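USER:
Before I trust my own judgement here, I would like a peer's view. Write it directly below this note and I will take it from there.

ASSISTANT:
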Amino acid sequence: MKSAFVLFFLICGTCLSALAQPSPRPGSAFTSFVDYQKTFPRPDESFRKKEDMLQKQFEAMNLEWPAKYIYIRSFKYDSQLEVWVKNKLQDQFKLFKTYKVCALAGTLGPKRIEGDYQVPE
């Protein structure tokens, strides 16, 4: 589970950083979400350990790193989370990876309100 979360965080965070513009706030030292996260020891260590592996996985699937668009699907019944990626708006999403989810909250059924512990479906 921890490894899946780290990989998921790297994919999403790196995609966000690819789209991020420099911060408009005067005096801000960070230009992206990833730059900010790398100031903390655990995310920085995860990036150093896993980013190269992710780049190779993307390359093996003929995907550009970092992906420009991501789509995340969650299936509570099957305890799975899928990460789909594409690089151009006109491309179709391609399944990058399916992660097994070990712990869940809520019950089967739709998300209705914030804080109901349901996964949006």
Remarks:
- The radius of gyration is 16 Å.
- Residues 3 and 111 are 27 Å apart (CA to CA).
- Strands lie at 69-75, 80-86, 94-100.
